[in-house]
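ARCHIVE CARD
Drawer: 12
Card no.: 0347
Subject: one protein chain, sequence and derived structure
Cross-reference: see card 0346
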Amino acid sequence: IAVLTVSAQSVASMNGCSGLVSCSTCIQSIQSCVWCYSGNTTSGASCLPASERDSCEYSRIEDPVGSVTPLQNLELSETVLVSPQKVMVNLRPGSPESFTLEVRP
């Protein structure tokens, strides 16, 4: 059995969330930042520490979460050498996701 760890490259900002002026840089900086949209435009939108997410209306928060979902997961057999066969991986930049990949010897 092999374990594959998948991660995204971070453009880490060790200065926290303040000063990040776009949704992209905010959610790519550090995992504890969330982007809060203020309306139909990004004018007035801001990058907040996750601890302040309650100050933003829930439907206006951008805070992606990583996940791993097997799409095809047949059992190993004479003809199936790897399991799962298809996996959908959603990544939050800078946050690793992992899953077990079984390989038939």
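Annotation on reverse: Residues 7-15 have pLDDT under 50 and may be disordered. Residues 36 and 58 are 9 Å apart (CA to CA).
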